Amino acid sequence: MARKDFSRIENDNSVNSDIAICERNEPGRAKDIMKCGVITIEKEKSIYEAIGILVERNISGLPVVDDTGLVGIISEKDVLKLLYDTEFLPGSVQDYMTKDIVSFDEEDSLKDISNCLIHNRFRRVPILHRGKLVGIISRTDIIRANKERFKPKGPTEKSTNNGPLARDIMKCGLLVVKRQTPIYEAVEIITTRNITGLPVVDDYMNMVGIITEKDVLELLNDPKAKPRKVEDFMTEEVVGFNHDDSLFDICDCLINNSFRRVPILNQGKIVGIISRTDIIVYILKNKSAIFQH
Hints:
Largest sheet: 3 strands, mixed
Strand content: 15-25%
Order of helices and strands: HEHEEHEHEEHEHEEHEHEEHH
Shape: flat
CATH architecture of the largest domain: Roll
Number of helices: 10
Helix content: 25-40%
CATH superfamily of the largest domain: CBS-domain
CATH topology of the largest domain: CBS-domain
Oligomer: single chain
Number of domains: 2
Mean pLDDT: 80
Number of strands: 12
């Protein structure tokens, strides 16, 4: 198990490493914001029990433990690839878990943890005390602890083919924001709904970008950043799929990329969202039919 192993961090000279998230009266150490009462699974448990927890709790990763402490992690991305490639998964969690883990001590700086979560693809890290797992910190936890930085000082503006297809499982009833939505409102939705990103749309529901928790973390890096609009920080290049596209293509995309969900479009307008968890649930419910194709 690796601890504070930054060898996997991708080089990005555009990101300021002097992270301004520890100003006066703001939390500065892992133990100040970490989530306790961590959901874990023992390494001897069935892999399907782990999948059930990931789906039911809608979490991206599940720490694996034994009598010695933290020994690995099983992620929804790992599970999605396994289910996509194999009709039946024999064995226990330890047969599929990732053993190389980046973790932090509860006394470690939130600056270091934030920097790690910005430059790596995983969304959360385990927090240890004397080598034992005591908590979890995610990107959203750090954003939630610092969201008041974005709150406007004065009055705010009101935001005005073969196989299954995307439309078969997409989630409708979307949470979206517009270009002119104050960034604080977007951060509030991301933290309260515990989602990784919000589609940005125009007045006709045409998708024009996305604002993600990673975008917000990078904003936290800038000590001079001021509360502005979503359009100032959103990502304009978005991977999306048509509602008639193959679910297999979407699954392949989510396996091979770091994002957890993709928008579903119909004639350029956003009509739904599909996440890794949505596909995992669909595969488990329709495994026999899927593998007949």
